[in-house]
Amino acid sequence: MYQIAVIPGDGTGPEVVREGLKVLQALSQKFKFRYEVTTFDWGGERYLKTGEVIPDGGIEELKRYNAIYLGAIGHPDVKPGILEKGILLRTRFDLEQYINLRPVKLYPGVLTPIKDKGPEEIDFVVVRENNEGLYKGMGEFQNKGTKDEVAIQISYNTRKGVERCIRYAFDYCRKRDKKKTLTLVGKTNVLTYAWDLWERTFHEVAKEYTDIKTDYAHVDATCMWMIKNPEWFDVLVTDNMFGDIITDLGAMIQGGMGIAAGGNINPEGVSMFEPIGGSAPKYTNMNVINPLAAIAAMQMLLSNIGEAEAAAALEKSIMHVTANDIKSLSAGKMGCSTSQAGNLVVRNL
Ligand code: IPM
Ligand code: MN
């Protein structure tokens, strides 16, 4: 029996999570597995009421689950940063979810803003380091508030942290078994400490994966190639900050935040799956938000806990829905409501 922790969160989070759980319920009957859901009320509302972001022992509690399913974090009445750092980043760090896995895949019927590119050309995966780099929160102010103020933000990269991320990327590339090409995305020409370590580690680890072709691209050039020749990419590995930025670009070329999902993965522990868009407060409770990103996150969750067949069936159904049933991936323009979109996925399983 799988134990699933669910954090619906803020804004439209609860609505899209409801659809993901609807799909999980249907799949559990079809593929004969059992699960139990425990809901956590972490998010903006709880914080405004209690002043608490995560209750004492909350993270410890999460360790008892097989996986975590997250809706969205971010509330218009809470100062930016408090919930993001207090819930999302805290969970990623404290549960050592050191990989942020973000597939960029254009499904049939989905419009990409890139002219002349289709599902054949847009299908790659970004492996983003998820515990270190600029996100570590290291740095300081000097002479704060004066004309001579200096703000220092440190990119913190450990050999251990970089190596485990790169190894995961090589393994993932091998398992994916497509172009068998891993591209390191960095900035070796300017950030000569961090990317020296990344590059050295990449080449050392590559020696153990002679079946995988390796490549390197600067992060700025990567943004260019992602638009110009996305078909060149198979698996990309990069640090936390660059990964954050290029995966928003990736989400756009695969049709938008309505479809983009990601996993925060601890290969040896508990992982968390989420739609990568925000809480979209202006659409809250309107039943117009697209739940496909959350449903795609459920697909990643299922594949992570070992329900490969259910995950494969779910992806097929999502592809059927994008190809045949949904007019657009944008909120309010789908041609159906949030709950109807969830029903369509269930019907096509
Ligand atoms: C993401 C988000 C987060 C990040 C924010 C909300 C802290 O943008 O998951 O990509 O920067 O990692
Ligand atoms: Mn982001």
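^ 3-isopropylmalic acid complex. The longest strand covers residues 133-142. The chain has a mean pLDDT of 97.
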